[in-house]
Amino acid sequence: MEIGSNYQASGKVDSGKFVIFLLIAVALNGLLGILFGVISHYNPLIYINFLVLFGIMFASIFVSSFCLSAAKSRNPMANMVFLLICAIYLLYNSWAATLAANYSGLEYTAGLLFQVSIDDITEFISLRQISIGKFGRDGAVLEGSILAIIYLIEAGIIIIWPTYIGFTSRGYYCENCDTELNEQGFYVPAESLLDLDNQKKSGRFDNLSSIPPVLESELANYTTKRSLAMINHHSCPSCDLEIIDLTLGKIKIDKDNDSEFKEQETIVKGLIARTDLKTAESFDGGSGNSSDA
Ligand SMILES: [Zn+2]
């Protein structure tokens, strides 16, 4: 790939690997669905149910993304299908487990896996009540169509969230070396990036290693006047391929004192680049986000 051009996924899929890791991911998501369904059945409180849901979602995102990476697919459409199948199977199994636990006892969960119908679910919802208040107190309950809407929202979260996160967080891939790229994220003061237009055009960033990264403790200086540049540097462990994402923005600090990068302008995304970062051994990446989840 030419320096200064933009990265494009090759679209290649190794179908053998893809199917194997899809089956593994589907099985693990199915187990997560059963776990969620059983907990939902025994837990009568809507708040706790959503907390459990978020926990299950994080686990699902982790499992699906890990398996998708292992499958080494560089085809966005195939990735989307992979993630959707996992999410739908999780949702399906959560309902199978809830109905099994509700009607027949847990030992029937496995037997129900392939025979849940929409009728079963609507009948179940019509009979179900979930409390908004605390245990052992007579309070508001959710039932009927309100409950149905909440289950619809829940289903939307289960399908859309992991699929979106899994799809948008796909890393870059080196076709020559058949491997994903390593990622390193850090912040620098925006004003220290000189000649950005030229660097963007040429793809050559020759002085990045000489700019001291902004440390976590200094982020509060970038809430109003000064801007930050968030740089995500991706490099192949085996060859000289480098890809840069560079975004300008400011820091927002919430009431819990947590800082969050607020993106204002994307300068480059997926730019094939040549930097001095690979050769700068003393470079430690500073603070910043090296997340790839
Ligand atoms: Zn490579």
Helix content: 40-55%
Please give the domain count.
2
SS-derived structural category: alpha+beta
From the spread of the alpha carbons, the general shape counts as: flat
Characterization of this structure:
There is one protein chain. The strands form three sheets. Strands 5-7-8-9-6 form a five-stranded mixed beta sheet. Strands 1-2 form a two-stranded antiparallel ribbon. The protein is flat. The chain contains seven helices and nine strands; from the N terminus they run H-H-H-H-H-E-E-H-E-E-E-H-E-E-E-E. The protein is α+β, with helices and mostly antiparallel strands and 293 residues long. It starts with 14 loop residues before the first helix and ends in an 18-residue tail after the last strand. The chain has two domains: 154 residues, no CATH class; 102 residues, no CATH class. The C terminus is likely disordered. The site of zinc ion has 7 residues, from loops.
Short overview:
The chain is an alpha+beta fold. The protein contains seven helices and nine strands. Helix 2 runs parallel beside helix 6 and helix 3 (about 75-105) runs antiparallel to helix 6 (about 145-170).
Question: Which key features would you list for this structure?
Answer:
293 residues, alpha+beta, five-stranded mixed β-sheet, two-stranded antiparallel ribbon, 7 helices, 9 strands, 19% strand, flat, disordered C terminus, binds zinc ion
Secondary-structure map:
Layout: H1 15-42, H2 46-71, H3 76-103, H4 109-112, H5 118-127, E1 129-131, E2 141-143, H6 144-168, E3 173-174, E4 179-180, E5 182-189, H7 196-202, E6 204-205, E7 228-235, E8 242-253, E9 259-275
Parallel strand pairs: 6-9
Antiparallel strand pairs: 1-2, 3-4, 5-7, 7-8, 8-9
Zinc ion binds at residues 174, 176-177, 236, 238-239, 241.
